[in-house]
Each structure stands twice: as C-alpha cells, then as structure tokens.
Design goal:
This protein is mainly alpha-helical and about 120 residues long. It has one domain (about 1-110). About 55% of the residues lie in helices and about 0% in strands. The chain has three helices and no strands. It has helices spanning about 1-10, 50-70, 75-110. Helix 2 (about 50-70) runs antiparallel to helix 3. The model has no long low-confidence stretch (mean pLDDT about 90).
Length: about 120
C-alpha cells in the first residue's frame, strides 16, 4: 500500500508503479513506457476522474475560502482570490485527478500483467 501511495504522489503507472504517466504538463502517454499497459481502458474512461478533481479542488480551495470569510473581505476580493487560486492549481488538480482515478480503478479491477511487463 505504501508503494502505491508513493506511485500516486510521483504520478506513476497504476500497474507497474514505475512508468511515468504524463509526458508534458497536461499530455499523457498512451501506454506506460515501462510495462506497456494502455492507460485509457475505454472511451470516456477519464470521465470518472472528474469526481476526484471535484474533491481535490474542494479540499484545496475551502481553506482559502474560510480564511477569506473570516477576514471579511469584499465579494470582489473573495471572488478574485478564489479564481486566481483555481487557475493556478487546475493543472495539478487535473493530473492528480487522473492519477487517483487510474490507481483506484486498478485496485477495484486489476489488470493482468502484459506479456512485456518486466514485473
């Protein structure tokens, strides 16, 4: 379990836990460069990652919203800060939402190792 948590934090493949998932800020490899597993199981596979994205966004934005509320800032300042924070964090939320979904799916419905899987 600790190895899987490390793979999630370092954004690694849900099957071999070693291959990189992303090749750029928002671009993903189609297959794992280490074990060759295809990341997208079916069309629309990553739609479920939106739920993880909503949860992550909520967890990251609520502390700021609560702090701004207690500081009694104006609605304009409140909205501006939350919008800027959302714009700055959305690439991180996007990436981790997909990673969390892929690892959750792998734990619920494990894929068998591929023939060229060195594990």
């Amino acid at each position: 379990m600790l190895q899987r948590l490390g793979a999630i934090l370092t954004q690694r493949c849900p099957v071999c836990l070693r291959g990189k998932v992303f090749n750029s800020l928002l671009g993903m490899y189609k297959e794992c460069p280490v074990c060759g597993v295809h990341f997208e199981r079916e069309t629309g596979y990553f739609l479920n990652s939106m739920f993880a994205g909503y949860a992550l966004g909520f967890l990251l934005l609520v502390p700021t919203a609560i702090w701004l509320f207690f500081m009694q800032v104006s609605f304009m300042v409140f909205s501006s800060v939350i919008i800027v924070e959302t714009i700055l964090l959305w690439p991180l939320i996007f990436r981790y939402a997909r990673i969390i979904w892929m690892h959750t799916d792998q734990m619920m419905d494990p894929r068998p190792p591929t023939p060229h899987d060195p594990v």
